Structure formats: structure tokens, C-alpha cells
Amino acid sequence: MRPATDHLPTTLWMVDDIPSRMVFAGRRWKVTDTPTRLRHSIWSGSPESNNRLCGWRFQGTDDNGLSLVFDVFREEDGWHVHRSYD
């Protein structure tokens, strides 16, 4: 997987308000490191929102053992993957 160019939707589960697992690109991912809150990051949201969007960066590992790093953020319609890194 290469860096995403679109803000792709994802389903993210939290434990104590910290990401623990997600479903993205048809795969289940388990968070396998300590997630970092991206408080000062700004991504463009919908044109009418003009909000600062905060998110998380974490490593996720799928059922086959593939690990990627994800940057995710939340908008009104749910969580989105901003980027994924090999």
C-alpha cells in the first residue's frame, strides 16, 4: 500500500479513547504500537466545516502479518485514512 491520495473511509474501534483496531481496504488491522495523537496536524475537511481536524498515527498489523503506519482523522461522517506508509 502506498500513501493514500484520498481520504478513504475506515471503521475504527477505540479502547479508553485510544485506537485499538480498524477495518480498512477490506482488511482487519490490529494496532500494534502506542498510537500518537496528531493534535497539531491540520487536514482540509469539507469546505463548509473549516475545522481543524485532529487524528492519530499508529502502526496496524493485518491477519497476514503485514504492518503499515496509518494517519487517521475524524470528520462528521466518521473516520478516514489520510495516509498509509509501508
UniProtKB/TrEMBL annotation:
Name of the protein in question: Uncharacterized protein
Native organism: Microbacterium foliorum
